[in-house]
Write a structure and sequence with these properties.
Chain lengths: 580, 336, 307
């Protein structure tokens, strides 16, 4: 590849504005955007949902959803005016010159077709009919280039894992050697380990065919590790554009600065400000607050959680983190603790009482004292009621309310404590609030009930990045200011590092490493924990994500992980984990 | 791969057997709860024919023995069930002594022919039109005209049958008013007979088609709207596939799946609707047989016809269920 | 694209978008409800303004055509019987005034009972799970394939005359399956939903969860299912009546059609005899369809885009 070809722009966006007519007038989704992408360069579009990054990409593909349209400006694809193309010309341009790898690869493949024919039909649509062996050769080659064996082509999409599906989508994207690849959050549904592999594949193949790449995302760390240039979008405007180095080291726009600082780092400054240490609420019982006795959970033939025993004393408020990827059994643990899911073996004891065998009165007491914050803030509110129903109802149910006015006052105080304006939110319907607002309301709800234990299951994984730190510090305050013990279930090691007093890393239902966060996450010893930490994309150019492409032999790693025995890194008072 | 999972098969078989058993039992129980004595009906019919009947008590007893209703109920029930297995429902009381199975065997081909024809036509037309209503490249006409035509589809087929019959048979006299074929042709594989059958079958089939395609079209419309928003359709467009290919292979192919299940569930209702259409067109099928049997209080025939129709329904549902794993590969995966 | 056409298209789009604001102001829904209310009003007001005694045989001359038409005997319609009379000398207007509400009544009653059974069984199956769920599920699967018309044919030919209410009860025995399946599926998915778990965490009782948390969100589905069931029930009832198996002494639209067909009204060109009840039934079904389409659009905003 010579310097000359490198510098030729493959995409030039000049003064692009995109509009969506709505009942309340025309909404400008993208405003006067100017951007040039050189051949062979990787450009990241970063911004929150609604910032116009996907809309811009769809405009380049001429696939804007009705009634959106490009109101002004020009799109030049290596010398071709995209907006002037006829429908048929545009169809031929798609994939052959611009490939789009969509968000949510989980559902991007036709569920009733095998993988191969879905690659063949793309070739045929552009190059006309050809014989089967030729097609088969091309699809096998494309699959091989993303590291998939040829027999993958004969499978149906539902027979593939998430990472494999995403690779198939990449293979599809490059099958006609396009000039430009647009990848829209290609790894958002994958766990960090798979994310790194898939991103590496995408980078390799893009370098191989020498196309331009637009990577759309919201994760500064992933961008830092993957692209050459960054375009920061906010509310449809390009607020900053430059090389990754420029932007990460010297962000100019305050929004960019926010984006960078909102990513918690292992070992970096804490985003929390512990100001005082409240005492735990007085307890009558000598028994530990929560005890797992040899708890196991099977789903059919699969064991989601292997026998586990621990006791959380609960006399001093603590945050215990349970860290793992999807399928590690961490959410199963959460629902077993809440009594939603009976264990297949063993007992869960709340103050010495089996959670599954409680009388009505005991159950009410248990519910009052063990509360939860769930992952999906959208689902937690009944769409039929105003949001205050979710706060008011338990308050009355647990007999905490003295009067209507008292309830109202308690709700308002709780809202204020999590930084929400009660007048603005309490009498709204759930769909009128943002995800962040809803999740804070759920935290406010927990605060109102002042339980002894809160189970927070991925409380920030579905809210926008800039709000995560705020919500986590709201949750941290529950312990710090109100003395509530918390079990924090997460896949995010960096936040667990900062908030917790004790960390357990779960892998396939086993604890693989446990101890204080400074040790477990700061200096991991178990290969699985190490793999997890290595896989996190840091927004730090010095800290490379591993350029050893392909050298991560998944099977070898897996075998290594399975062989290693659990590592226990020291104890904290008030929490005893039985060593297996 | 390629085989139907065992659990799934067993599950469907149990449902099939239970359906037939429950339906057969209901049909058997109901007449026995009735105060009407079939032997007396038969006697009444004889009396009407002969003027007066001597030793009526003896004849009654004889009739009861012939009909088997002098035996204990459980014996009757078991006999009935074993009979039903081999399609033996005894003798018709009205067309005595013709076996019920003969009557049904004569009527069945007509009903099956009409049914298969009209069902297939409606299913295809309905789903295609429903899909075109959603597709953004359909001609304007399609997207305006079909919703308007949809108004017909809320009407049950007997009503549309009446209207069509009046307009095309009674008023315009383009089509024959009744019957399944002209009385002037000999049944056989001759062109004149076949054309006569088609000619006579046109209106009954049409009256079913015009009122049932809308059901499929409406369902398809809803499904297509969902499929239209799916990521795989977006990716198909991003792949630069031809729109028509996307419509058939990506959109309709996926949207049709729940429709096939609905097809199985609707078969019973559709056949029942068709029975009524046959009745008003005096078509020589099961509908007419059933209607005549009702008029004559001919219970063995009523039972036999109902049983056969329910059996047909249950079998079609079973067949659709068996084919389904081949149409939707995910089923094979889930059940396995 | 020319600028003028753009703006016109845009205006149309805006007008269409405005309608999204209040989903219940749905033209289909309003028309459908209007048609059904019209039929009910016909029955109520008709009884006051017209003589209901005219439904009895022989209360009027035979086979008179509606006003403005002539029958084959050359008689023209008279003001005393504006919609004509049937072959038994019954006044058509009186027939539909009495018959149409009867038909609607059977449909509504059967559907109401069917829905109640469906809600009960659906919630039981979804909530209790295990054996109860299996039994209810299989039963619903089995019963949904049995065409009600045939069972009812057997029943009514065995028992002879039935009352309207009894017929409604019998039909109800066949319209509980689809609401049961629907509610069961919804309850199962709602059981996993965040807000139900939240309510459990709030110490809510099972009945609170069922009636206060789940039921309100089921309302659009229940409405839709109810209307679909009314249609099925009326179709079944009319089917029985057209076969001559409905109530024998109570005027219904279906029975009127049965008598017309039996008397050869089609050949004699007595179109009003069967045509008027057919038209009325068609109106009823169109009304029900429009309500159903309207409800669909209310509960599924994606459908609204297209109309």
């Amino acid at each position: 590849m010579t310097e000359e070809t490198l510098d030729k722009p493959v995409l030039t966006l000049r003064d692009i504005s995109i509009e969506f007519p709505t009942p309340k007038g025309v909404v400008q989704a993208v405003k006067n955007l100017d951007l040039t992408i050189q051949k062979g360069r990787r450009v990241g579009f970063i911004g929150e949902s609604g910032s116009g990054k996907t809309t811009t990409a769809l405009a380049v593909m001429q696939m804007l959803a009705e009634p959106g349209r490009v109101a002004s400006g020009s799109i030049d694809l290596a010398g071709m005016d995209v907006l002037a193309l006829s429908e048929e010309e545009m169809r031929k341009t798609r994939l052959s010159r611009i490939a789009y790898i969509p968000q949510g690869a989980m559902n991007s493949l036709n569920p009733v077709m095998r993988v191969e024919p879905q690659m063949w039909d793309a070739i045929i649509a552009h190059e006309g009919n050809m014989d089967r062996t030729a097609l088969k050769q091309r699809s096998d080659a494309a699959l091989a280039s993303v590291g998939l064996p040829a027999h993958t082509g004969e499978l149906f999409p539902h027979e593939l894992s998430g990472g494999m599906k995403q690779r198939v989508c990449i293979a599809l994207g490059i099958i006609l050697n396009p000039d430009l690849i647009i990848a829209d959050e290609p790894t958002s549904a994958l766990d960090v380990v798979t994310q790194r592999q898939v991103m590496q594949t995408l980078k390799d193949i893009q370098e191989q065919i020498g196309s331009g790449l637009i990577l759309i995302g919201h994760d500064m760390g992933l961008m830092a590790q993957s692209v050459d240039e960054l375009a920061v979008l906010k509310d449809g405007e390009l607020v900053e554009h430059g090389t990754v180095k420029q932007i990460i080291e010297a962000p100019k726009h305050p929004y960019t600065q926010d984006l960078i600082s909102s990513v918690p780092l292992v070992g970096g400054d804490s985003f929390l400000n512990p100001d005082r240490n409240a005492d735990a609420p007085k307890r009558d019982s000598q028994e530990p607050l929560l005890r797992f006795e040899n708890v196991r959970k099977d789903y059919g033939a699969v064991t989601a959680l292997h026998p586990m025993s621990f006791a959380l004393q609960g006399d001093t408020p603590q945050i215990i983190s349970i860290v793992g990827q999807s399928g590690s059994g961490k959410s199963t643990m959460g629902s077993i603790m809440l009594g939603f899911n009976p264990p297949s073996q063993g007992r869960v004891l709340y103050e010495g009482q089996d959670v599954q065998k409680m009388s009505a009165a005991q159950s009410l007491e248990f519910r009052k004292n063990v509360q939860a914050v769930f992952q999906d803030p959208y689902a937690c509110f009944n769409p039929f009621y105003r949001v205050n129903h979710a706060l008011k109802f338990p308050f009355k149910q647990f007999g905490l309310a003295q009067s209507e006015a008292h309830t109202q006052q308690a709700m308002e105080e709780a809202c204020a404590a999590v930084g929400l304006d009660p007048d603005l939110v309490l009498s709204r319907y759930p769909h009128q609030l943002s995800g962040g607002q809803r999740q804070r309301l759920i935290v406010a709800r927990a605060l109102m009930l002042s339980p002894k234990l809160l189970i927070a299951d991925e409380p920030v994984s579905m809210v926008d990045a800039s709000l995560r730190a705020t919500i986590l510090s709201n949750i941290y305050d529950l312990k710090d200011k109100y003395g509530i013990s918390i079990l924090y279930i997460t896949h995010d090691l960096a936040t667990a590092y900062h908030v917790s007093d004790y960390v357990m890393v779960l892998y396939k239902g086993h604890v693989v490493e446990a101890g204080p966060p400074k040790e477990v996450i700061g200096q991991p010893q178990h290969p699985y924990t190490q793999l997890l930490i290595d896989s996190i994309p840091w927004p730090d150019l010095e800290r490379s994500w591993g350029d050893g492409r392909g050298e991560h032999d998944v099977e070898k790693l897996q075998a290594q992980v399975e062989r290693a025995s659990a590592v226990y890194r020291g104890d904290v008072a008030g929490f005893d984990l039985a060593r297996v | 791969m390629g085989r139907i999972p065992r659990d799934y098969l067993i599950n469907r078989l149990v449902t099939l057997v239970l359906t037939i058993l429950i339906a057969a039992t209901i049909i058997w129980i109901i007449p026995r709860l009735s105060p009407v004595d079939p032997a007396e009906i038969a006697l009444g019919r004889m009396a009407a024919g002969a003027g007066a009947v001597a030793n009526s008590e003896e004849i009654l007893a004889q009739l009861r023995a012939n009909m088997g209703i002098d035996q204990p109920l459980i014996v009757q029930y078991l006999k009935y069930l074993t009979g039903a297995l081999v399609f033996d429902f005894g003798l018709s009381t009205a067309a005595f002594p013709t076996p019920v199975s003969t009557l049904i065997l004569n009527a069945l081909p007509w009903t099956l022919g009409l049914m298969i024809l009209s069902l297939i036509i409606t299913f295809f037309i309905g789903n295609l039109l429903g899909a075109l209503m959603v597709w953004d490249r359909s001609p304007k006409l399609v997207r305006v005209a079909i919703p308007a035509a949809m108004v017909f589809t809320s009407i049950p087929p007997i009503l549309s049958g009446l209207l069509l019959m009046w307009i095309f048979a009674a008023k315009l006299q383009w089509f024959p008013l009744t019957g399944a074929y002209s009385i002037f042709v000999e049944p056989g594989w001759t062109w004149s007979f076949v054309s006569s059958v088609l000619y006579h079958g046109f209106l009954p089939a049409l009256s079913i088609v015009i009122v049932t395609f809308g059901f499929w079209a409406l369902g398809m419309r809803g499904l297509m709207i969902t499929v239209q928003g799916e990521d795989y359709v977006k990716l198909a467009e991003a792949k630069g596939l031809r729109p028509r290919y996307i419509l058939y292979r990506y959109m309709i192919r996926n949207a049709i799946l729940p429709q096939i299940t609905a097809f199985a569930l609707k078969i019973g209702l559709l056949i029942a609707g068709q029975v009524l259409v046959e009745r008003i067109f005096a078509y020589n099928g099961m509908g007419k047989l059933l209607y005549d049997a009702i008029l004559n209080q001919d219970f063995p025939v009523i039972q036999g016809v109902s049983y056969v129709i329910i059996l047909m329904t249950a079998l079609s549902v079973f067949l659709v269920d068996l084919l389904y794993p081949f149409i939707d590969p995910r089923i094979r995966h889930e059940a396995a | 694209m020319a600028e003028t056409s753009m703006t016109r298209a845009e205006k149309r789009q805006l007008r269409r978008l405005k309608r999204f604001d209040n989903p219940w102001m749905n033209p289909k829904l309003i028309w459908g409800v209007g048609l059904l209310l019209g039929i009910i009003a016909l029955g109520l007001i008709g009884r006051v303004l017209w003589d209901p005694e005219l439904v009895f045989t022989g209360s009027a001359p035979l086979k008179l055509p509606p006003i403005g038409f002539e029958n084959i005997r050359g008689q023209s319609g008279v003001l005393d019987h504006p919609l004509g009379t049937d072959g038994g000398g019954r006044d058509m207007l009186a027939l539909i005034i009495i018959g149409a509400p009867n038909t609607l009544f059977v449909g509504l009653l059967a559907s109401l009972i069917g829905m109640s059974i469906g809600i009960f069984l659906g919630f039981s199956a979804g909530f209790l799970g295990g054996r109860t769920d299996d039994t209810i599920r299989v039963l619903a699967d089995v019963m949904i394939t049995i065409p009600p018309l045939l069972i009812l044919v057997v029943f009514q030919s065995a028992f002879g005359d039935v009352t309207l209410t009894l017929m409604a009860l019998l039909i109800a025995g066949f319209v509980w399956q689809s609401p049961t399946r629907l509610i069961r599926a919804q309850v199962l998915s709602m059981k996993q939903s965040g807000y139900v778990q939240m309510a459990q965490l709030s110490g809510a009782s099972t009945s609170h969860i069922m009636f206060n948390e789940m039921l309100p969100n089921l309302v659009p589905y229940l409405f839709g299912s109810f209307i679909a069931n009314v249609t099925t029930s009326i179709v079944t009832a009319v089917g029985l009546e057209v076969l001559g198996l409905g109530p024998q002494r109570i005027p219904t639209l279906g029975r009127t059609i049965y008598e017309a067909i039996n008397a050869g009204a089609l050949i004699q060109n007595l179109w009003w005899w069967w045509g008027i009840p057919t038209l009325l039934l068609a109106t009823m079904f169109i009304g029900l369809l429009l309500i159903n389409l309207g409800l669909d659009e209310v509960s599924n905003p994606r459908l609204r885009k297209l109309s």
